[in-house]
TrEMBL record:
Record organism: Adlercreutzia faecimuris
Domain of life: Bacteria
Name this protein carries in UniProt: LysR family transcriptional regulator
Record-linked Pfam families: HTH_1
InterPro entries: LysR_HTH_N, Molybdate_resp_trans_reg
Domain HTH lysR-type: from-to ranges: 37-87
Length: 114
């Protein structure tokens, strides 16, 4: 077996606002936080599941919301958080595009004889 056969590709996708001065974007980390909110019902639980401080998760979400000019989460204090309708659509689109990109990159890697 050729050592190249053991390798796989990894494409990094991000969604950004080209009109924003911020460098913040919706990428894998923000997507994982949003998936956690969807699964656990709170940003705090999502952050803990990722081994991240709540304050860091809060800052990441706020910075991304400001950069994209989209509210990702509805927060209800002690009652947790949920994705907004737009946040959910963005997350679903990100997941679908990411899966297709990863599969296509791996297919191309194999096709090109790597």
């Amino acid at each position: 077996m050729d050592q190249l056969d053991k390798l796989e590709t990894n494409v990094r996708l991000s969604v950004r606002n080209p009109h924003s001065e911020s460098t913040s974007a919706f990428g894998r980390g923000v997507a994982d936080l949003c998936l956690g909110v969807r699964e656990y019902g709170s940003l705090n639980a999502a952050a803990k599941n990722m081994g991240m401080a709540y304050s860091k998760a809060w800052r990441i979400i706020k910075d991304t919301e400001a950069a994209l000019d989209i509210q990702l989460l509805n927060r209800d204090g002690a009652h947790g958080s949920e994705l907004t309708e737009r946040g959910g659509r963005l997350l679903d689109a990100y997941i679908a595009i990411d899966a297709r990109l990863q599969a296509e990159a791996q297919r191309l890697f194999a096709e090109l004889g790597a």
